[in-house]
């Protein structure tokens, strides 16, 4: 079935027509009042009303027209500014009632949104099972297949959220407006244009910033706020206070902007600091090594890349202070210096400092540079390996990096050199699989360089994003279509690009590209540690480009 377009409708002062007098009619009236609409109940004068509905009528919150529905109700009871047409109609009698079909047909003809209880075929819209927390609203729909199930899913989602998250949304919205007003004061209009909440990250979210770009520099604080919303753990966002917002606003331009967690002074008892460089793997906390997990639990100070997922940061003990790198393209060197300064400060204070690096510290993680830095200052790091996404992400996407008769070598490259230098790609070898890290923000230029080196337009490629995380996404396509695919589907960092015939070994498709959502590869690990059934390739094909 075609998915419905989910929207949030501003219903303030709208006229909602509720036909019927059963308890569901009372619930519909209550919901209309909650969203600021004015409900009008159509029901015969001798109808038996639910107690709550009768009370609302007595208190003047619901207007009751004591008769049966009439066709002219649809075009005479609404607001004057829309020529009397009502804004929405709720029929509570169910689809088997003869009048329900008649009302549905009339509404559709007049393009009035209509909802008929227990009759999805007569509805032009359905109500979501919603969780509301201040400005935060989360809705779940089963598309008419089961309201009880959607309510259960909504409860499960809501219970997994930290408390007071709605307050955090409100505070961050205030911060966003303050930043916007300061940086765009000259052209600020009366009302900010609302952002689309469900569009996902645009393809330019991680696009390379050129230092000379004044426009990019002007918007850097807004960009950093976007990355805070994307990468900070939800429980830490939920704990943000008005004082934190004021501090962030003052210090967005300074190194303190990415500090979260409690601050602490050095212990009066002088002790030697320790530094651990720990790889956190591709993202799923189950893929941490035991050594890395122990290091995290022992930390006084955590230095983390922005791409380290929230489930891993959730393992950090509350006593520890966490610094998240303010890295984005064009600011990577300065952000790296900040992390090293924080780490050295902590070591001199006698703290256990754990530097969490996505993947493996020595695979494009600057681990060698950091080792050399701390060693030069008298602190020898302990280095703990991590599962690199360069090899695990293809595995989780059902791409064997080597395969007899197809691929006999693997080459790991970076898509971005120092200070944003472009990649000089290797020569094309048909039996080689190339994994390109940090490449999606400059994908178009990268593909042009590959084509210039003789890479065939129909060579299979795959974009792998958030590997091993629940929101893992795989875009399977070819060199010819990969730029269009990423432009249309948007970006979901962190991601990498796999190039080579190995991308087709376990996947068959004829479309220009396909998109696969979700990761369940570890779901069937039993409590005894034995894998009951492999689901590494069990994904949902969400979208298909013909």
Ordered list of secondary-structure elements with their pairings:
Layout: E1 15-19, H1 23-34, E2 38-43, H2 51-58, E3 63-66, H3 73-76, E4 88-91, H4 98-110, E5 114-116, E6 129-133, E7 136-140, H5 147-159, H6 165-183, H7 214-218, H8 220-231, H9 234-238, H10 242-251, E8 259-260, E9 274-279, H11 290-297, E10 301-304, H12 310-313, E11 321-324, H13 332-348, E12 352-357, H14 367-376, E13 382-384, H15 389-396, E14 409-414, E15 432-437, H16 443-452, E16 460-465, E17 473-478, H17 482-489, E18 495-499, E19 513-517, E20 540-545
Parallel strand pairs: 1-2, 1-4, 2-3, 4-5, 9-12, 9-13, 10-11, 10-12, 14-15
Antiparallel strand pairs: 6-7, 8-11, 15-18, 16-17, 16-18, 17-19, 19-20
Helix pairs in contact: 6-8, 6-10
Protein name: Uroporphyrin-III C-methyltransferase
